[in-house]
Design brief:
The structure is a single chain. The protein is an all-beta fold and 123 residues long. Helices cover 0% and strands 53% of the residues. The chain is built from no helices and eleven strands. It has strands at 2-7, 10-13, 18-26, 32-39, 46-51, 58-60, 68-73, 78-83, 92-100, 112-113, 117-122. Strands 2, 4, 5, 6, 9, 10 and 11 form a seven-stranded mixed β-sheet that branches. Strands 1-3-8-7 form a four-stranded antiparallel β-sheet, with no helix packed on it. A hairpin with a 4-residue loop joins strand 7 and strand 8. The protein is globular.
Length: 123
């Protein structure tokens, strides 16, 4: 079992920045890949970014590439999503998720989920 606790959401103006945190605990955390997803009202859950704990394999969706960055702190078992140059269309509830070993871009592939944190970007 892996437990995920998110924090860091909030309200920001377009062009601003936020950093989301996802603290992981439980068994074999370092063997789990971490993904970030988001869901806007009336829309399906959308892949944002993902990485494996080990190695440099990181993947971003086209909509956030160049603006969002995953930062890992293995000592704290925490993954951060640094979000810069935020746009109103980034407004959504953001979730971190974990699955065994390798990441995918499909939310159905993830076994563990955080509670979600609201990000609102005003124009």
């Amino acid at each position: 079992q892996v437990q995920l606790v998110e924090s860091g959401g909030g309200l920001v103006q377009a062009g601003g920045s936020l950093r989301l945190s996802c603290a992981a605990s439980g068994r074999a955390v370092s063997r789990h890949a971490m993904g970030w997803f988001r869901q806007a009202p009336g829309k399906e859950r959308e892949f944002v970014a993902a990485n494996n704990w080990i190695g440099d394999n990181i993947y971003y969706s086209d909509s956030v590439k160049g603006r969002f960055t995953i930062v890992r702190d293995a000592a704290k078992n925490t993954v951060y999503l640094q979000m810069n140059s935020l746009k109103p269309e980034d407004t959504a509830v953001y979730y971190c998720a974990a699955r065994w070993e390798s990441f995918t871009t499909k939310f159905d592939d993830y076994d563990y989920w955080g509670q979600g944190t609201q990000v609102t970007v005003s124009s």
